[in-house]
Amino acid sequence: MVKPSNQHNLVPSSLNLGQLQQQFSQSLLYQESNIALQLKEKQGFTAQQLLQIHRNNFVMSVTESLKSTFKYTEQLVGEDFFDSVARQFILQQPPAINNIIVYGEQFPFYLSSLTQLVDMPYIAEMAKFEWLYEQCQKTVQQPIEFDLQSLQQITPDDFEYLQFSIPSHCLVFESSQNISLLYQMIINNNVEATNLNQQCYLLLEKEPNFTIKVTELSEQQGQLIQQLQQKVLLGALQPSTLQEQLSYLITANLISDFSIVKVKENQ
């Protein structure tokens, strides 16, 4: 006599590749899955033990990727603490796609949510800086086509419609913590107790030799670049005094081009 099967414990005799991959991913994240029943046991190891080995290898490999991006953050908190929070982050917010290079954007925000770091906001801010640094490395060097002579020929009536372009390989970092000072202390191996509660603007610029140049900006310089990156016209800059910093951007080769943009009024 054949007994009725228990549908909850039934494991399909064959799964397609997509189903296997999904179940394996779920099992790596300690989510309910029957993938252990699909694994072939090896001498000395049960299926569950093999699965745990895969889990550990997965977490370790992703943690190493995070360490590569957030190496200064790891120096600040120590390896043991970093490994612990990285593991929890990976399990809570695992990679969504099979490209580990783009993983980690939310890690700084995860750090800022930890009660252990509530009195050390510079930790999460350093992680944000390192993530932006990583993104700057991935940018493509953009040629500077700015023509000062052409700008000088613009009539005063068109000034307010000028739209300046910032090179795509230039990114601005803004923080309530003095990450510029902290960054210098770390790279010079001279970290000491200091007050970091100070507004900070940094320009990250990819050089032709693929290195990243980090330059400290004034608040107005940083705000001007940010607004120009948002395609704000010269006449719409807030505050209008930001226009005074335009000469600095031109001299520093931070303007790649300009155009005149006039929006037609609705008739």
Q: Low-confidence runs (pLDDT<50, min 5 residues)?
A: 1-17, 23-33
Ends apart, CA distance between termini: 84 Å
Shape: elongated
> Based on DSSP secondary structure assignment, what is the total number of beta strands?
5
What does this structure look like?
The protein has 267 residues and is mainly alpha-helical. The protein folds into two domains: 1-138, no CATH class; 139-267, Alpha-Beta Complex (Outer Surface Protein A, domain 3). 41% of the residues lie in helices and 10% in strands. It contains ten helices and five strands. Strands 2-3-4 form a three-stranded antiparallel beta sheet. A two-stranded antiparallel sheet has the order 1-5. A hairpin with a 5-residue loop joins strand 3 (200-206) and strand 4. Helix 3 (71-77) runs antiparallel to helix 6. The longest helix is centred in the N-terminal third of the chain and has 23 residues, at 47-69. The chain is elongated and about 80 Å long. The N and C termini lie far apart (84 Å). The relative contact order is 0.09. Residues 1-17 and 23-33 have low confidence and may be disordered.
